[in-house]
Input
Amino acid sequence: MTGLQDRLTPEQIDEFGRAMDEIRQRVVADLGKADVDYIQNVIKTQRGLEIVGRGLLFAGFLPPAWLAGVSALALSKILDNMEIGHNVLHGQYDWTRDPALSSQRFEWDLVAPAQNWRHSHNYIHHTFTNILDKDRDIGYGVLRVEAAQKWHPYYLGNPLYAVLVAFIFQWAVMLHDLEFDRMVKGERKWSETAEARARMLRKASRQVGKDYVLFPLLTGPLAPLTFLGNATANLARNLWAFSVIFCGHFPAEVESFTEEETENETRGQWYLRQILGSANITGSKLFHILTGNLSHQIEHHLFPDIPARRYPQIASEIQEICRRYGLPYHTGPLHKQLFSVAKKIIKLALPDAVPGRPPAATTLNAKEEPEAA
Output
């Protein structure tokens, strides 16, 4: 685990890990009514926005009503997916014993089945965060987002693939669980996806039926406008979720790791990897709510099962600990992070400038040993 040990001494890594554990224990001990009230209020707001949005589409022949309806519906879907669904499915509210907030029972307004997502995201991504060939969220099996990923002519389409993924993001999240990239490599058989595909078909059928058949039909002659309104709301949600998630994982300064570096990883080293492999987005309180507090991606990767509303409360403390140990704390406004991600995707579409040259700054010790490159 040379790379991680190069950042801090073993003693410092242990101290760092204990500091993170102490923050976690303090927050968990303080969970209570305020956290339940918060998520219940968000749920009420989300449901209210959906009712208002769908109601306004009944008056969709009036352009202002159509636009207001689509906006309300889009906000409803964003809250459902980001601040409610994502966080509830992480088990952030399992401690309440409320069936409506159970990670095992909750289902979101998304074509991706919650059961499939919990495995690919909660387990694989959050266990193996940014470990090449382990974390399947690195490029989602479609994009080249790390220089350590071997270049292939296929990646010339990197920018186009990224735009496509952004527009169909909910479908990309669903199809991600089929692991087509592993099938191409012969590591997975189509027959092994039968159960996952069955869940996808059931869930996608319900979502498509609701948004593009049932609700349009309910508005009678306005069905085409309602269909378009639902499609627009889904598109807005897709683009927003894509932007937030990619800005938290793929800006230029975010690091990736090899399996060798993370072998026999200690708790402190796991925390360190989360810090180095994530990035935050600055913004207002409302902005953070609309991102599901994934604008605090660093804190989320450190403590994925702690209610996300707590991340802003501990962010400054995490940042101070990083300063104390000389560790980076990647953060910046949305436009800056988006530009960094876009620049990286375009750059990595092209073959490496010097054939055979090791990729720069893709591992923890790459910046510290430039002469080795």
Notes: Residues 354-373 have pLDDT under 50 and may be disordered.
